[in-house]
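## retry 2 of 3
previous attempt timed out at serialization; input unchanged, resubmitting
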Amino acid sequence: MSEYQYYEFQTLDRPLSREEQEQLRAISTRARITATSFTNTYNWGDLSGSPRRMVERCFDAHLYVTNWGTHRLMLRLPKEALTLPAVKPYCLDHHVDAWTTRTHLLLDLTSEDEGGDWVEGADDSLTALIGVRGELATGDLRPLYLAWLSALTARELEDDEEEEYRTCPEPPVPAGLGELTAPQRALADFLRVNDDLLAVAAQASPTAPKEPAKPTKKELAPLIAALPQKEKDALLLRLALGPETELRTELLQRLRGTTAHTTVTGRRSAARLLDAARTRRTERRQRAEHGRTAARNQHLTALAGEAEHIWQQVEAHIATKKTNAYDQAVTLLAELRDAYVHTGRSTDFRQRLTNLREDYQRRPGLIHRLDHHGLR
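## retry succeeded, writing output
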């Protein structure tokens, strides 16, 4: 398999200038560059520029995928939309990182899994993930908690220091972890968040508040009139300099005086969450195994009730003297054996099988297949 690296960058709040596009072209002559994006795939070599610097200067989102298991998502948000103190509790090792520039806050979310499955030609794209940027800008911290869970799983695989997990505190738990949005579900999959760990974490998550009804002109007019003149001027200036994709949401929250998303204080340690996830995984697998066993037993009971009909089918397959029919006959016999064992009639099966082998002892192809499947 050849090397595969996929880079995608997008700008959302403003288009790239001609000068910026020319600077990007100097980084890669093969990349597809538009006023809002930069994409390139490498099967040898590498991107000559720094993705971190490119996001700091130009882009609002970056996706990176490799065939050796790296999944990376970087997001850039205005500092007024999301603060570094709000993000820091969710940062863990090198898997979840955050920093600020003069105007923006940047997030770097990474998942590494060298043993994971990778499908060559898969549709790698920011499209499914980009919605989490807008959610973060409106105060929904579920994407950050998901990234923390991903990092926690990675740390468990990398390090066996139990004490680290016992002293690693859970960050604030956002509401609605049990009912993720489509972009959040895509992010959980992209960062390989363990479903059992997510389910355990969601047990401490409050129900997400319902989306407020669409505002009406009659509702908003008096609220806008009551805004201080200085605040109105600042909002209009930002609109004129924009576009800011989340300005409308921010304004509505300001007018209505509501907070769309809440968190509760994290009270569990990393070790407690991981232990609970392991317990849940074990119980889930035991239930699944019990279900498979029950279904198998039900099938064998039904098969035993149709035994005579199946013996007739076996004889009909053998009579054709065709190799593929021999295979079908042997498959039916193996199922019959299990059905007879299940119903406590093993002796009956062995007797009938002995008779069948004697009747067709001059069919070496059939006898070989019976021997190969332990039907002696």
